[in-house]
Specification:
Elements lengths: L3 H13 L7 H21 L19 E3 H17 L4 H17 L11 E3 L5 E2 L8 E2 H17 L5 H15 L7 E4 L2 E5 L1 E2 L10 E2 L6 H9 L7 H8 L8 E3 L2 E3 L25 E2 L2 E2 H18 L15 E2 L6 E2 L12 H5 L6 H19 E2 L2 E2 L3 E2 L4 E2 L5 H4 L2 H9 L2 H7 L2 H12 L4
Antiparallel strand pairs: 1-2, 2-3, 4-7, 5-6, 6-8, 9-10, 11-12, 13-14, 15-16, 17-18
Helix pairs in contact: 1-2, 2-3, 2-13, 3-5, 4-6, 5-6, 5-14, 7-8, 7-15, 13-14
């Protein structure tokens, strides 16, 4: 087994000189860079060769691409350019080709995209029986990335100007108001629409979950905005959270011991959780406490599941019995996903770095692959996921970067439309 600190020492030789011993802080920085670069490779090296879209997973049909993961991939390429992993001009050309494909080839439904799409033809691949049309949540993850691209690639040359124009057009053509419906529980946005089944799924988007970005973008749209009441009665509904205490930590967001951690990642690659609040505390503060609960929960189950305590992090991932949204409590079977702790670095830096050290020192040989740590593992059952999922790789590099430099939060929040949406929330009244 190659010791992780030797790998990091070699990575630092060029910067510090041969024979020097890297400091602990330098080791951590090198480890974070290595993890980020591996995640970027998933979207750069493994992106679909025709469209550049993000593939659903490394062991799936190679034409099966995911719209939400593609939006996450946009953030990864921004990180890749900023960190020097990817040449800027090459990234612009790849992204331009992808946005042309999304504009001219990909099926859209009132401006929104499906969950899955064929990376060669642009045709919808049904996600389930009645889910063969628009998926507003996956579209929101894509749109978050589009706005970040538009703001980051600000050069005056024709290539970057064209990229910005394409990103802006795709964003403006999403008809958020089409998905705005008044139900017996009040106004809300609906998750799906199908040209074959219309509103058959009839699934309302209500918080708290991974969908916060949907409502902020719907409020912020310059062309198809919804009114603030949809946010306050749809997203911020009476079931939003319950005051309780878990492992000595007061909580008021969500319920029970706490949600799977992807709820704290997907909407917040670009949306800065420090700018919005619930129950008198920012989302960032709530997420910090949810991570602290997960750390203490893992310690409490160390006799039940091998590796718990030193390792932690429950989220949606592959598992030995299939994909599931793992969370503290009954939905825990000993399956941990590296994305959970690594993407939580902004909220729990000490605990996330401790988990990374443990992964590197004692589990690297079994878990490390071409795109970083494998999707998930269950040491109790001696199981390791055979590959990667785009939506699990996707948050890692951007969230690490948000901790290191704030780049993705700063870039997305520059969009003037987002300031408009936030102002509407600040001047409107919750029910």
């Amino acid at each position: 087994m190659v010791k992780w600190f030797l790998v990091l020492a070699f990575a630092l030789v060029g910067a510090r000189g041969a024979g020097s011993v890297p400091s602990p802080a330098a080791e951590v920085e090198a480890a974070l860079t290595e993890v980020q670069q591996a995640g970027v490779r998933y979207f750069w090296d493994f992106g679909h060769p025709v469209s550049g879209l993000a593939r659903e997973g490394s062991n799936r049909n190679p034409d099966l691409c995911a719209i939400g993961a593609t939006g996450m991939g946009f953030f990864n390429l921004i990180v890749g350019v900023e960190r020097g992993f990817v040449p800027r001009a090459e990234a612009v050309e790849r992204l331009r080709a992808t946005l042309v494909f999304l504009t001219e080839e990909a099926e859209r439904f009132h401006g929104a995209f499906p969950h899955w799409i064929n990376g060669t033809t642009g045709k919808t691949i049904p996600f389930s029986k009645y889910d063969d049309g628009a998926d507003l949540v996956e579209t929101a993850y894509l749109a978050q990335g589009l706005l970040a691209l538009r703001e980051y690639f600000d050069g005056i040359g024709p290539a970057e100007m064209r990229l910005r124009d394409l990103a802006d057009r795709l964003w403006r053509e999403i008809e958020w108001d089409w998905f705005a419906r008044r139900t017996d529980r009040g106004p809300c946005l609906l998750w799906h629409w199908s040209p074959n089944h219309q509103w058959k799924k009839n699934l309302p988007i209500r918080g708290f979950n991974e969908c916060h970005i949907v409502y902020l973008l719907a409020l912020s749209s310059p062309t198809h905005a919804v009114e603030p009441e949809y946010y306050w009665e749809g997203w911020h509904n009476p079931g939003f959270g319950r005051k309780r205490e878990q492992f000595g930590i007061p909580l008021s967001l969500g319920r029970g011991v706490g949600p799977p951690l992807f709820w704290t990642h997907y909407s917040y690659l670009g949306l800065d959780p420090r700018v919005l609040s619930h129950d008198g505390r920012t989302y960032f503060e709530h997420f910090r406490d949810l991570c602290r609960v997960q750390v203490r929960y893992a310690r409490s189950r160390s006799r039940d599941f091998k590796g718990y305590d030193a390792l932690w992090g429950l989220t949606a991932s592959l598992g030995p019995d299939g994909y599931a949204a793992f969370a503290p409590g009954p939905r825990d079977n000993g399956t941990l996903a590296p994305t959970a702790a690594l993407s939580s670095l902004p909220y729990a830096p000490k605990q996330s770095i401790a988990c990374l050290r443990e992964l590197q020192r004692n589990h690297r040989e079994k878990l490390w692959g071409p795109y970083g740590f494998r999707d998930a593992f269950n040491l109790t059952r001696d199981w390791v996921a055979p590959g990667y999922l785009g939506i699990d790789v996707g948050p890692i590099a951007p969230m690490i970067e948000n901790h290191r430099s704030g780049l993705c939060w700063r870039t997305f929040m520059k969009a003037p439309e987002i300031a408009t949406g936030l102002k509407q929330l600040q001047t409107s009244t919750p029910r």
